[in-house]
Write a structure and sequence with these properties.
Layout: H1 16-30, H2 34-41, H3 46-55, E1 64-68, H4 74-82, E2 87-92, H5 95-104, E3 110-114, E4 127-133, H6 142-152, E5 153-164, H7 170-192, H8 196-206, H9 211-220, E6 223-231, E7 236-243
Parallel strand pairs: 1-2, 1-4, 2-3, 4-5
Antiparallel strand pairs: 5-7, 6-7
Helix pairs in contact: 3-4, 7-8
Length: about 250
């Protein structure tokens, strides 16, 4: 087992401050082999899904793009290629992840900043596009993170998120949990000496809303669903949304 990482995910995800602390330690440990792990866990499909994410975005001449929980920068670099006249900011909590992203960066229109999903270091209405791959599920407070996405998007701006997805049926959720806990935990054990690395994916889904509730949270925070694509029999999915108006308070 890793000498640096012995935390049990299930014991750290119930309180936002604890989840944030866990994520910082978890992704610091995972950073060095993160790209290999995502390829292996997705059976080689991760890169194709991320290309689909960027391909789902509208054609824009010079957009301001933000990739949240950017990790090692792969989606940020795809955005830079898609929008050569735009600017791209990758934001991530993990300093080791950002160090890898900065080392790999060959684009003059890409920069990386350290920041929290629930407190993005960006002005109101400053982004035309917000993306995230395996991002919102890691937010210490999901509602705050979605509200932050709405805040930084310009009117009519677009957001697209690739992530694991929770089915509505409890039996299917339990089956998915067991599958992901064993498969992803296997790669954590192989690459890092502990199944807690990447086995975290299954644990994070235990406290993540099912698909219909997630759509409701987006709607409540002023993000309108545009498209919903699913992969791997619904285990992962791609959601595309557009910034609308926040719903009026009840009774107003």
């Amino acid at each position: 087992m890793s000498e640096r990482f012995r935390l049990k995910a299930r014991e750290w995800l119930d309180v936002p401050e604890r989840k944030r602390a866990y994520n910082e330690l978890h992704f610091a440990e995972a950073a060095s082999r993160y790209d290999l792990a995502t390829r292996m866990m997705s059976l080689g499909r991760d890169a194709a899904w991320k290309r689909m994410l960027v391909g789902s975005l509208p054609s824009l001449p010079c957009p301001v793009c933000v990739d949240i929980a950017c990790g090692t920068g792969d989606v940020a670099f795809l955005l830079a290629g898609r929008y050569p006249g735009g600017v791209v900011t990758g934001v991530d909590l993990s300093a080791p992840m950002l160090a890898i992203a900065r080392e790999r960066n060959r684009f003059s229109n890409v920069r990386f900043e350290q920041g929290d999903l629930c407190d993005l270091p960006l002005p109101d209405g400053s982004a035309d596009v917000v993306t995230g791959s395996y991002s919102l599920r890691n937010a210490p407070d999901l509602r705050k993170a979605v509200a932050e996405v709405h805040r930084v998007l310009s009117p009519g701006g677009v957001a697209a998120f690739l992530d694991f997805s929770n089915p509505e049926n409890s039996l299917l959720r339990n089956m998915q949990y067991l599958l992901l806990r064993s498969w992803c935990g296997f790669w954590g054990l192989l690459l890092h000496g502990t199944p807690e690395i990447h086995g975290y994916i299954a644990e994070s889904l235990r406290v993540f809303p099912a698909r219909s509730r997630l759509r409701n949270i987006f709607r409540e925070q002023g993000l309108e669903m545009c498209a919903d694509r699913r992969f791997f029999f619904g285990i992962t999915g791609l959601l595309t949304l557009r910034k609308g108006e926040l719903p009026a308070p009840v009774g107003v």
